[in-house]
Amino acid sequence: MRDARQRASIMKSIIMAAALAGAASAALAEEGGAHSQPKPPRQEWSFAGAFGHYENAQLRRGYKVYKEVCASCHSISRLAFRNFAEKGGPEISEAEAKALAESYKIKDGPNDAGDYYERPGRLSDRVPPPFPNEQAARAALNGAYPPDMSVLAKARGYSRGFPLFLADALPGFSYQEHGVDYIVALLTGYVDAPQGVELAPGQYYNLYMPGRRTGMPPPLSDGAVTYDDGTPQTTAQYAKDVSAFLMWAAEPHLEERKSIGLKVVGFLIVLSFLVYFTKRKIWANVHH
Q1: What is the DSSP string of 16-47?
Q2: Closest to 71 (Cα-Cα) out of 260, 219, 252
Q3: Among 56, 170, 181, 259, which one has the highest count of C-beta atoms within 10 angstroms of its own C-beta?
Q4: Tens of pLDDT along 54-79?
């Protein structure tokens, strides 16, 4: 009896503590609601889901936005020129990919004399960064060091809150487009600072940047990049296209991965049926 009373007392203490913690969390959430970090709006992506795939035209447009707007500061140094001609990407021709590579100068060497030299790029080369090193980048950009964008779409993310974060913890059920949603929101999230908020010189107010302050000026504006396929030349469209391109840069073999995964799942389903009927046939006449 005594042990039962102790267990009941402990359970009551736990329940009361949980209730108090919940009430405190709700009060803090209500108090800080106006100042909490907004969640990026969920976007529709062609590559989402088990059957998703990249849109080649969107990737080509996204690369154009990256090259004309982002490439002067941000690198995509993990991406090779040959990836542009591979299936599941922009799928430009090998000749176009070769011409793209040759438009860059690659530092190579040493040669027989022990000197380093520059040569035209090859398909096997990775896209060179805009600055030779971090120090050069900081010197050119007032101390700022722009991050490499090769895996940005997979590295960035945000919590979707209860109860969706529970689904995100389960393999096969998690939402995998947090990063691209965040990039779109960041590129379109520049607004005037609210009254009473002071920004340091060179800072800009962005709703989706942690701390809501960033040293990056608004990079996109309507009509900044010319599209040849009739797609609207708006900030929102630029943001979606370059975000899709960065998703591809982070995972250029996404379509191949999903194709293999579906084949494996199909094989396992067939194997399960074969094992089940084999078991029934073998043990049907065995008396227990």
Answers
A1: HHHHHHHHHHHHHHHHTGGGSPPPPPPPP-TT
A2: 219
A3: 181
A4: 999 999 999 999 999 999 999 999 99
